[in-house]
Amino acid sequence: MSAVRAVLKGAFRTTLRSSVVLRRTRSFAIASSATRPNMSGVSVNVKSSVDKTARKYSSMEGAAPVIDFSKMKEIAESKDDKYVIVDVREPDEYSAGHIPGAINIPVKSSPGALGLDAEEFKDTFGFEKPDTNKTLVFYCLAGVRAGMGEELASTFGYEHRLNYVGSFGDWMKNKGEVEIPKQA
Q: N or C, fewer C-beta in 10 Å, the chain?
């Protein structure tokens, strides 16, 4: 089993290095999904070692710390205003259900949103632009867009960022509370 683990770790490291280079290109979303290893059918022990490797790489310079379900649940339940939970999925995904207290800033259709001035941001999204002194906690469905959103936020001066890499898929798997917006 340790030989399989070593091979998967090596493949995952290569994939992560490749995705770091690909992040600088417009085709990041397509390229990163094409280069990610298929982990279906792999034992839980191997997946956890890959998760540990992902955490190691998330501590690379400039990357936001990675959080897990228990930390995300703690943040969501605390309602602490030093955190802003940011769902970077598209509006239709958000309105189907999201982590309680999350705001929706879709990374694919509005990648420059956090670069807008406060007035234009409010006109566009209907709520105040997050303060750069707050800690933004990013999530999506599976973690890819959350990483993109987190990186974009750093370019717009948001120094305090967290990445819930398990994202909404992990939230649902762990039976986290889901908020569904009321229809107007």
A: C
Query: Does pTM top 0.90 for this prediction?
Result: no
Domain count of the fold of the chain: 1
Report the candidate in 7, 10, 139, 14 with the shortest Cα–Cα distance to residue 83: 139
The reply to whether 138 falls in a domain is yes
Alpha carbons 101 and 41: distance in angstroms, whole number = 34
Which of 136, 140, 146, 152 is labelled catalytic? 140
3 state SS for 83-119: EEEEECCCHHHHHCCECCCCEECCCCCCCCHHHCCHH
90 closest CA partner among 68, 60, 110, 116: 110
Q: Among this protein's residues, is 35 annotated catalytic?
A: no
**Separation of alpha carbons 152 and 98, rounded Å:** 21
**pLDDT at residue 61, rounded to an integer:** 62
Residues of the chain with pLDDT under 70: 1-61, 184
Neighbour-count burial of 146, counting CB atoms closer than 10 A to its CB (0-12 exposed, 13-18 middle, 19+ buried): buried
